[in-house]
Structures are given as C-alpha cells and as structure tokens.
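Chapter summary example.
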Amino acid sequence: MSTEIKKQIEALREEIRYHNARYYDQDAPEITDYEYDQLTQKLRKLEKEHPEYLTEDSPTQQVGGTVKREAGVTVVHNVPMLSIQDVFTKEEVRSWAEDVLKKHPDARFSVEEKIDGLSMTLRYQDGKLVLAETRGNGTVGEDVTPNALVIPDVRQMIDLPGYVELRGEVYMSHADFERYNEAQEIAGKKQAANPRNLAAGTLRQLDSKVVKERGLRMFVFNVQDARDTADLMTSHGAGLDILQKLGVPVVNHRICETPDEILKEIDRIGETRGDLHHDLDGAVVKVDQIRYRGDFPAGSKYSAGHIAYKYPPEEKEVIIDKIEVDVGRTGKMTFRAIFKEPVRLCGTNVLRATLHNIDFIREMQIDEGAHAICRKQGEIIPAIIAVTKPTGKVYQAPEHCPKCGHALIREPDTADIYCVNPSCPAQLKRTVGYFAGRDAMDIKSFGQKYVDQLVEDGYLTSCADIYTLKEHRKELIEKGIMGREKNTDKILAAIESSKENDAYQLLTGLAIRNVGRTSAKAIMQHYEDIDTLAEASVEELCEIPDVGLITAQSIHDYFRDEENRRILEQLKAAGVNMTAEKKGAGNQPLLGLTIVVTGTLPTLGRKEVKELIEANGGKCTGSVSRKTDYLVAGEAAGSKLEKANSLGVPVLDEAGLFALIESR
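The structure predicted for these 664 residues follows.
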C-alpha cells in the first residue's frame, strides 16, 4: 500500500511540474486554474497524511517558475518573491484569522483583489527607479527594467528618500487583450489564450516598443523594503495609502478587524469582479501590522502573514431560448446562447453565453430549447460547459452572413466560419482602418477615429471610397469630421500620395486572410502587378516559398469574389498603383538569406532591423534552426544565441549586419 501511495505522490508531482512549466515558463497553460488547484490540493493532502514522503523539491515546497533569460540578465532578489498560500473555503479563512487574533488581539487585516497577472518588483534609490525584476524562481528573476519603463503605471520617480522596494502585479486589461487578438486574427496569426499569458509573454519581450504597444498595466500590492521611510513599513494599508497619494497605482484594499468583516469583504469582491476591467483569481488577506507577519510563517514557498482565498467556479443551470449569430470585427461568425431567463453569476445578471464555434456546438449537442450549465470562464466570460437535457437535435450554422447576405466560408482544418465581404457593415470600420493603417497604405494622420466617423456618416462604404473623399472636401471641412481646413487638406494630400505606394502595400491593405505585410511583400516579388496575382491558381501560389495551401486558397478565393473585384476596379480607376516595384539582385544583397534577430541592438529597434533585412532581400524569422544563415545578436541575446552557437550558425552584431549588406 505504501508503495502505491508513493507512486501516486510522484505521479502528481510530475503532473504539477509539467503544468507549472506550461504556466510560468511557457505562458501557455493547458488546464484551468481550478483544475490546477485541484491537483495541488490532492498532493498536499497526501503529503500531510504521509509526511515520510515529503521532499524539498516537491512542487508544494517551491515557487513555480524557472528563470528565463530572453528578456534580460538575471538578478538576485533583495527580498525573496514568494507565493501566497491558497485556501479554498471560508472556514479556512476564518480559522486563519482567528489564529492570528489569538496571538495578536489587536491585529488588523487588509483584504485585497488578487489580480491575475505576474509579479514584478521595482527598486527605487533616492526616488529614482533603478531596477525592475520578475519573480523567476522566487530567489532569482529577470531584469526587465527597459520594459517596465514603458508601462504607464510604473512611476520612474517617487518622492521618497533612500531605498524603497515595491512589489506589484503586471496585468493586461480586457480591452487591450481583445485589441491584440483582433490584430492577430487579421494577420492570420495565433491568438493569445488569456490576458495573464499575454501579459507574461509581453513583459519578457526583448523590444520595449512591443510592450508599450500592447498596453501592460500594473498595481502595487506590497512594500517589500523601505529603509528610510518607517511609515511605509508599519501598517500595510497605511503604506499603500501613502503610495497612492504619491501617484502610485495600488491594489484596491480594505482594512478589516474581525473574521466576519473579512468574509464580508471577500463576498463583496466576488460580487463585483465581473465589473472590473481586468481578471481576478481570488482575494488576498494580509496581516496589516507588518511586524506581526513573521509570527505566522507558511513554509519556505509562501510569504508569512498572507493567505489567498480562491473563489470556486460558480455554475447555474439555464435553458437556451435562442442561438444568436453575429459577425465579429474580423468577419468571423460568433455564436451566443440567449437564455430563457437571466441567472446570477459572480455578482452579475447573465442572459447570454458564448458558444465558441460551430464544432463546439456540435460536440456539446447544443440546440435551442436545451438545458445546460453556464459558468463564467476565468470569472469573466459566461460560457456553456455542459448540456444536461438535450433536445435530440443540433443547431445548424447559417450559410449566409446575417449582416450582408454574402456567402460564408469555413477555413480548412478549422472551426472558424467567416464573411469575407470587405464591405460587410459589421466589419467595414475595421477593414477600412486597416487599409489606411501604417502596415498597409500608411495614410498619414488618417486615424481610426476619422474612419469610424466617415463610415457612420456614409462617406465610406469600402476602402475604395477613401479616394473619393476629395470630392466632398467642402462639406467635410464644414462638418469638421477631419478637423479644420488645414488638417483636412493634409489628410487628403496624404490620401493622394498613397496612390503611389508599392503594390505589396495595397495587397496588405486588402486584408486577405493570412496575408500580412511580410507575406504580401514576398508574394509581390513573384508578380508584375495585382491583376496578374488575381489570375493565379492555387497550385501556382503554393509554389511561392512560405505560402501554404490555406493562404493560397484565401488569395484565390478573394480575387474570385465579385464584390472584391468591384472594389479592385474602383481602386484602379482612382489611380491607385497596382504594379510591383521590382528590385534586381544587385540591389538585394541579402537575397536568399534567412536571418534571425535577438537581443537589444545599439541603434535599431526590432521593427527597424526587420525592415532593413527585408528591404535588402533577406527573410527575417523568429526562431533559430539549421536553415538560419545568420543570427544578429544584441545585448541580452539569451537562448537564441546559445542555440545558434550549438548549430554553428554565424553570429553578427549590428555593425556586422551593416558590413554584410555593404560587402555583397
């Protein structure tokens, strides 16, 4: 029996280690937080019942992550960045608080939102930010100072003397997460699973411009050290209040004195979490008097004087009254279940839930009239997780767009159904904005705000209408849609100038699925003009390097669509250039070379060096392999440099890249 128990414990440890690596190191978890918590609870229970099998390397005794070097050099923490011990019942919360009060009857407690992100510590010296570090393995983390400097919530200067160390949570708002995924979908790239994963991956980026663009945020939740400011290290809540007055965004917190008050505040946070602009994964309870915390250790893995209450996933049975089909901003069909009556979940009334895609509907046997279980995934998004009483039938997806009537297509090997009509009212603002954007036609100063208003006022019904705006100059100025006369004329001039762009920019702007700027540039190297490309067969397109069957089919189908042909003719009639700029081999010294860039270069940003390589005929990829011809490495190059060395790939610095271009 003891041998079986030992095997069970070891198997659980291996499973948890695997999921720790997926969560902390790869930012790609395969199970929910709730499922992970169930595994760790089971392991803790077995280790408690069989202490003879407890080991120092058990996941219950260690902080979950390993140290990654891609984002910068490693750094040893001044104050260990430990986890917080989780509890899963209110009885455990009450028992813990009562134990604290037995020893310190005057103890107070700070109850706070547990934001679902990743921890970062900020070190200040004489008011100036000198270092930002991730948690890593709790003892050693990564130096991510350049990235922290572009997070708007991170104060570069604080009016505090001496040395101050603050710890907080870096997170991504729901709005920024959705914006990122929409852009990924437009480019035909993989979307992020959740805001926490995306925030973690973003903070470890080598290019701080990427961090700024994605819009990370941060709340400070603890003062780790303040050697010259005693007020920050006496009362936790008072310390957070001082920081808040100094302009530091701090976590929402409330001071409680009794277990009943603590539980009431936990309930209040639970009821309001659905209204927040970011994800929560629990509520934290801390002993407010910092000097008392050391009296309540929770092991080497956990911070003393803290616990975290994890909310159980709340579920309710519903009756699906109707299935609603809509068109997302990218043209993808979205499916939602509308309930016969609303249910209360996580503090909010819920009347509808996402149904993901048509394959999910079929697998779950969902239909109008079915009884089902609804849960808020991540405590935010209502979703159907099971059908308890099926109707015996399964809902069938429509064949035509509910907004414009255009025939729908389903991408091969996916569950995604799309309306590919670029003039579809449901996606018109996005398609026109993308056409005019920096990565496509790059019409200066013609931002999304102007596009939205012009669409709403009927001036734009497709991207081709951009080039007819000059005919409405007088009324546009009178209405002030694009500002006064000077700004309107500047934008109209930029529109005219964009007609001379290279054809690959036009191809990018057409927003063909899976065809982004880089692939558009490569494709137009094989065709004289857009008209020639439009006649290409799928087989011919597949012969282009890096153009697969799905991309080839998307291009072929786009140019066979009557509405798309009409828009293309309008663009041609307006004088938009359709001809590709051809460069001879002599003007492309990097032609045929595959180059990877890593680390921080002295003068070039990540986007600039990529454009330099592509402008000279090279191909810039993201990972090192045996097919890589050169690695361009800057400061803090990390694992890509190690892999290049192991494969014998030549390594260049920035100066070496310039020399290579000049020498060929």
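To summarize the output: Residues 2-25 form the longest helix (24 residues).
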